[in-house]
Here is the input.
Amino acid sequence: MREEISKYQRKLRLSNNLMQIYPKIKAETNEEFLLQLLKELHEDRDEKRRIRNLNNAGFLVVKSLEDYDYSQIRFPDRLLLKDLETLSFLDRKENLILYGSVGTGKTHLSVALGVNAINQGKKAVFYRVHDLVNQLESNDFKTVSKVQKKINSADLLILDEWGYLPLHQEGARLLFDIISTCYETKSIIITTNIEFGRWKGFLFDEKLTAAIVDRLVHHSHMLMFTGKSYRMTNSLIK
Here is the structure.
């Protein structure tokens, strides 16, 4: 019964799409009309998928790379700006570690890259680390399964505020499981103001910390954010 309802819903959506697209098509022959119709349907389907992926990504605020200021970022030699903006690192399953003080644009850049990935037809998911761990620790199997499914199907996982709040042993283990699952299968972007040597301070377990660092660093580029806090600089309180 559910399969029949699902098929009916798909047919209904297709019918609605045809009714919207049909009057706009200008063609002199049946062949041109059919070609244009198929092209419009394909573009309409891609756009709906893009919007759905954008809504499901978990971004708190959607950001863009337009007019983004890179002047206070130190890039590694093996990663050029064009490689960053074209997302070529995603094709190579490479990671980005965005390191710097609070308010220097790390989250903005990570989200903007995620939005670009979605615009290219890929899937990106965004989590603040503590929120992710809380969901993975839920007693609701559906909640945990949903999170795991979203991450497994994504091309890019963005982990924001890495190390901002301490984790207990089980939370650190769950985070390790996520990193291990993503290792060499998808790209990860991490935003943090904690250098590697202090990661044990919020993960607590020395061996677990070493294992996480080992997997993340293997295929990673580190971008150093050296500027002042944008929020403090532009604060209304002077």
About this structure: Strands lie at 73-74, 95-100, 124-128, 156-162, 187-192, 220-225.
